[in-house]
Task: inverse folding
């Protein structure tokens, strides 16, 4: 049985290259980000997202703006373990 462990934030992208660029830029900025598949309830043409701690959302949005990284959307979802 899965236990709810809180929330996580996801950034979704139209292209794989933007997802990879976002992950790299976030890590360089000290944000614990990692590539993840897009959950079925969300859509993305490339099927990749990047998850990161929600407490880092403002910083992650700033990284995307400053790096001109095209993010389709930012989402907060329940994380399961």
Result:
């Amino acid at each position: 049985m899965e236990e709810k462990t809180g929330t996580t934030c996801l950034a979704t992208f139209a292209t794989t290259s933007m997802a990879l660029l976002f992950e790299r830029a976030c890590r360089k900025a000290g944000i614990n980000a990692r590539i993840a598949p897009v959950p079925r309830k969300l859509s993305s043409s490339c099927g990749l997202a990047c998850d990161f701690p929600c407490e880092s959302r403002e910083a992650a949005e700033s990284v995307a703006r400053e790096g001109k990284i095209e993010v389709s959307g930012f989402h907060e979802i329940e994380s399961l373990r």
About this structure: The mean pLDDT is 87. The chain has one domain: 4-80. Residues 4-80 form a domain with the Alpha-Beta Plaits fold (CATH 3.30.70.120).
